[in-house]
Amino acid sequence: MLALITATLSLGGLALVAGIILAIATRVFHVEGNPIADQVENLLPQTQCGQCGYPGCKPYATAVANDSVAINHCVPGGERTMLAIAELMGVEPKTVEEDATEPMLAFIREDECIGCTLCIKACPVDAIIGAPKHYHTVIADHCTGCNLCLEPCPVDCIDMLIKPELLEHWSWPLPNTERAQQGRERRDQHV
Amino acid sequence: MFDWLQFFRPTPPFSGGVLLDMHKITDASPIADCPLPEVLIHPLKQHIGASCELLVSVGDHVFRGQKIGKSKGYVSAPVHAGTSGKVVRIEDHIVPHPSGLGMPCIFIEADGLDQSIEAKNSITDWINHAPSLLREQVRLAGITGLGGAGFPTYIKLLKDQRHPIHTVVLNGIECEPWLTHDHRLMIEHSDAIVEGLAILLHLVGSPRGVIAIEDNKPIAILAMQQAIDAYTSNAKNQAAIIMVVQSLPTRYPQGSEKQLIQAITGQEVPAGKLPMHTGVLCQNIASTEAIYRAIVQGKPLTERVITVSGDALPIPANLRVRLGTPMRFVFSHCGLRQWDGIQIVHGGPMMGERLKNAEAPVVKSTTGLLAMARNTLMAEHQGEEPCIRCGHCSEVCPIHLVPNMLADFTRQEQFDKAESYQLFDCIECGCCSHVCPSHIPLVHYFRYGKGQLAQIRKEKSFAEASRQRSEQRNSRIVQEKAAKAARRSRVRQQAKKILPPETKDDQP
């Protein structure tokens, strides 16, 4: 009988101590938000384009972290983003249905702009400046090429242009030797 | 105190490096003047840093030495008109760059008079002037590192109290094959270079100047020594400074700033640090001559000496060329008529850029122009064979990298691993590619890897900026909504009661 009480008390005491430690630990090491969702969000290209069906990159990242949506819906991120998410989440890679397009840039034809501010409200990253009844213009350095400003424009004065190739952004291509090209082909096959 | 023992000490060498066939066929041809072309093309960015701001418009008349591009930002250098004439066009034009892409350029049609703007700031008694004033003069003259890198010179001349400069090194190494422009400058303008060195010593407050020359240029060593003797024997120059010529055994890439400092002081410049941190200022010979001209003669940088050479060029020469002269004009002046099968190289054959055509102009960083027969130049790296792990590349690497591993990583697109093998410390000297028995274009792989890494980083920072903007926008929308709702409920409450008039005015 004594043995039973001793065992119950000691185990119960241990459980109590452990419980207290855990309770303190959750307070001390408390993390705001969902850490996996944040990690997924860091992998996304942040165009905020909504092509995944969610109203931005953060909602999509949260959905991916909760396993409620497939990992292959990010169109601008393309295959590289999908693979990175698959590695982070520890799931099988999936094929990306739509090919990523070239980086685009919105351009407002200013002489046709009527100054309605609708595109300014639509821009997810505040990359359009202007005021009512004044020309609007796109800040090229901030535009993510998400196309969200095209639809609200009542006079269709916004064009999507391919980003111009600038000298400052140029980088060396892969060497044009057989082995280098073979290596690239193999990598592409492997994926 | 003069250090007499230095001649008996063995020169501390830098590690690695190779011996090259030098092909210095123009080392005996004196500097000649290149005639003026009809149109000069001035790119608005000829240096490392921010592009210049346009100061002229089409139709303007300019004089030689007139500032046409204003420096924008700290790391920048102004651009000056190369001759007198009319600005005929301002548009994108090809510049000396391996991409073959263009950038905004100012086209000046020469009027043939070649009138210079008045030199108003010539300072012959520079010793009595404050270094900050002289440095401003150097900045306004648009001088950049004329050895090829194009870093604005005045920044290097800033006096930093935490890192006092104990030695100024003039880089007369010229370790690239074919190039001889610095060699000829040292022979023909040795007095200007020595006075330029004295100005540099005054500028940074350093007591000791070393002119480093490789031992394959004995005439230049002699000329510089005589010039130093003449300068120091002059009674008015009896200041407490020491200038010496140091002859170094020939070896590539000794002309690289950090390798040269190691060869002279025995001190290695740590990764990620600047020569300043070891107390050394390194200046190019041509830059020093340009500093002399800028201060003593008050002339901005509008011309430079280049070597025009190569195995496909009929009349190789050292030419004083006006900046902005189209390369095609320079080559035609040197007798090049047959353009087929020729590769134009901008700079030396080891580190220079292979250009797609000769339309680009001569810029501040042009050290030489080579017309090489394509079959001699391109034969090397056509067939890349597997690496046999001979280790030659690691032996010759002057900064102790492992080139074969780096190439493997970049080929497999494991850029983060390549970075952990210090990819960004590579100076792209080309020693590894040169000795590789498997003809692996190692440096090309490194450039590719560096470019890709930079690209990834740029995308990351752009995504981060976009995320922040989007978050700010979302929180702003939430705030606006809340403010609106609060206002609405307040108005509603106020409408219910009958209000005294003074609180009515408070309503927004």
Strand and helix map with partners:
The complex is a heterodimer of chains A (191) and B (508).
Chain A: H1 2-28, H2 35-43, H3 57-65, H4 78-89, E1 104-108, H5 118-122, E2 128-129, E3 137-138, E4 158-162, H6 178-190
Antiparallel strand pairs in A: 1-4, 2-3
Helix pairs in contact in A: 2-3, 2-4
Chain B: E1 31-33, E2 39-43, E3 53-54, E4 61-62, E5 67-70, E6 79-80, E7 85-94, E8 102-110, H1 131-140, H2 153-156, E9 167-172, H3 181-188, H4 190-204, E10 208-214, H5 218-233, E11 242-248, H6 257-265, E12 280-284, H7 285-296, E13 303-309, E14 317-322, H8 327-333, E15 342-346, E16 353-355, E17 368-373, H9 374-378, H10 392-396, H11 403-411, H12 415-420, H13 431-435, H14 442-496, H15 501-506
Parallel strand pairs in B: 1-14, 9-10, 9-12, 10-11, 13-17
Antiparallel strand pairs in B: 2-8, 3-5, 4-7, 5-6, 7-8, 13-14, 15-16, 15-17
